[in-house]
Amino acid sequence: MPFITVDKTRLFYRLEGIDGKPVLVLSHSIGTDHGMWEPQMPDLLSRFQVLRYDTRGHGASDAPAAEYSIEQLGHDVLALADTLGIPQFAFCGLSLGGMIGQWLAAKDPNRVTALILANSSPHHPPPSNWDTRRKIVLEQGMPGITDMAMQRFFSPETLARGDAYAASIRSLLLGTSPVGYAGCCSAIRDMDNRKLLADIRIPTLVISGDRDVSTPWTGHGEVLARDIPGAQAVHLPAAHLSNLERPRSFTSAVLNFLEARNDSSDPLERGFAIRRALLGDRHVDRSISASNDFNRDFQSLITRYAWGSIWTRPGLSLRIRRLLVLAIAASLGRWEEFRLHLRSGLEHELEPCDLKEVLLQVAIYAGVPAANTAFHEATAELEKASGTSQGT
Questions:
Q1: What is the DSSP string of 328-385?
Q2: Residues 6 or more apart whose Cβ sits within 8 Å of residue 360
Q3: pLDDT tens, position by position, for the chain (392 residues)?
Q4: How far from 158 is each of 8, 28, 168, 213, 217, CA to CA, in Å?
Q5: Helix (H, G, I), strand (E, B), or coil: what is residue 14?
Q6: 8: Cβ–Cβ under 8 A, 6 or more apart, which residues?
Q7: Which of 22, 156, 201, 279, CA to CA, is 20 to 30 A from 92?
Q8: What is this structure's pTM?
Q9: Do the strands 49-53 and 112-118 form a parallel or antiparallel pair, or are they unpaired?
Q10: Domains in the chain with CATH codes
């Protein structure tokens, strides 16, 4: 089982992705667990090996009866990385996770390569608020603070529409150990990272929710962005759990920030790499061999900008980009391009159900004749791929 023991406390973790890729550690909010990051995982795993863990007192990790500290929670992360043989990592923490990240980046800057602080704060007074929360959960259990916490985690509109993520978080909150929750309340109560911020010398992104009443920009995010040298800031129209209320915007902000630091290669080099990955070496080699003095600049332009600059953007997955190209090519009647991307898509990640759905969209928005031809082209390619008749 994926556990390590730190100070006689078992910590649960999940390390996912391909060995050799840069490591990104994700640290969750108080009252949740590592599953809070599920909406981000598909996009993150395409670029990183991702380490998620349950903070001491939460999820499947032990919840010792004690008052925890941010320093202690930071040492938990370092012990986890040491045990897994991870010398360096980027760190993304939300709320309590961001408070842990501040300590890590200031105290062990050689380990942390980049820092994302979402809906967080370097100091969260007054202490009496956290003592009150401790008292409530220890005497009444988690139901005593659940409604209050949910109104801070999510905007009223999200709660009113019965959002699936909000429902999941409510269940997580109710299932959290009151003892563990109280321990983390103590860590937040006693935290004052303000003097550490100037010592953070790594690239830092501060994500703030415009509707966050727990850690609003004023007095919280603005302090991080102002006092951490060179920090960037992104504002999202979200409440406290911004990664769940605006999951795609959050993921895009994280990836754009990290990619800008991880990839300094020439767009032309990136373009050739992704062309080969998507279309295959044979197609690319054939295109290169067919280039001449007349069309070489055009081929370079396509490779640099279409492939190297657009296809490599992290905002959309490669699967979605493939489907968009198929829909646009069919709508415009660009059948050579349609067949090229159809064939390469089927060889990699696209399935017949994907084609059916996108071509039904084409039928409605670009017309039945275009969709009819596209269905015939797709059927022919599917028959070639399977060696059997797909029907018409």
A1: HHHHHT-HHHHHHHHHHHHHTT--HHHHHHHHHHHHHHH-HHHHHHHHHHHHHHHHHH
A2: 371
A3: 699 999 999 999 999 999 999 999 999 999 999 999 999 999 999 899 999 999 999 999 999 999 999 999 999 999 999 999 999 999 999 999 999 999 999 999 999 999 999 999 999 999 999 999 999 999 999 999 999 999 999 999 999 999 999 999 999 999 999 999 999 999 999 999 999 999 999 999 999 999 999 999 999 999 999 999 999 999 999 999 999 999 999 999 999 999 877 655 788 888 888 889 888 888 888 888 888 989 999 989 989 999 998 998 888 889 999 999 999 999 999 999 999 999 999 988 899 999 999 999 999 999 999 999 999 999 999 998 877 544 43
A4: 40, 20, 13, 15, 20
A5: strand
A6: 64
A7: 156
A8: 0.88
A9: unpaired
A10: 3-262 (3.40.50.1820), 267-386 (1.20.1290.10)
Contact present, 200 and 106 (Cβ < 8 Å):
yes
Under 8 Å between Cβ of 97 and 26: yes
CB atoms within 10 A of CB 54: 24
* The amino acid at 312: T
Question: Maximum Cα–Cα distance for the chain, whole Å?
Answer: 79
**Which two tokens mark 304?**
């640099």
